[in-house]
Amino acid sequence: MAEASTTSLADSFAIQWRVIRALFLRELITRFGRDNLGVLWLVGEPMLFTLGVTTLWSLAGLAHKGSGIPIVAFAVTGYSSVLMWRNSASQCTHAIEGNRPLLFHRSVQAIDVCLARIALEVTGATGSFIFLSSFFTYLGWMQPPDNIALVIEGWLMLAWFGASLALLIGAACVFSDLVHRLWQPVSYILFPMSGAAFMVDWMPKKMQGLVLYLPMVHGVELLRHGYFGTVVKTHYDLGYMAGFCLVLTLCAVYLVRVAGHRIEF
Q1: Within a domain: residue 3?
Q2: How many domains does the chain have?
């Protein structure tokens, strides 16, 4: 009779943590290298994009009349969050196929290569958001958050949504390259609908109900509620977003498991 495995749950988590950490470092070096700014581009890349959008909005005077929201703070809170979930999904489109040889190692699973790329994007977007918020606050262009706990909660919810979406997209691309091709235009369509460039309360009542079907809008509204406090009127349902993310996560984990077996055989 074969001996039962004595690996404990804690040991299994420790092994997977080391695997994901190694894959994270591998992705970091592969994408950004060691030359010039190197890994600083992890934060610099999303920071430059957000900074560019913020500058254009400020020069164009696109502040919403009567809203009382500084345009710099509005742009930073909106576009930093969008880059996190959008880039996470985009980077996972070929994550499993691109790391096929690694999946023949017993300890490396399909979900590990996706999680490493997701962690890379979340880390970069988070670092960019913290740096820009701190820098603009120092310059006096932004005020400190009204409720830092709500800001963190909103950011974590958006990271959860981004991670589950990225896992689903990454796994689906194993079954058809059409998913990768469709994701590009879909991501561009979702970009302006994500809540980055508007507040739900600014929209007509009929449109408010429609945009609130999109889970990321709830996360952005929660984030801005924490940042601006009572200056803005926000609309979000944390239970709806959590339920959506939970279902998306379960579907994504199942599909990643199936995709991993498909790659191996």
Answers
A1: no
A2: 1
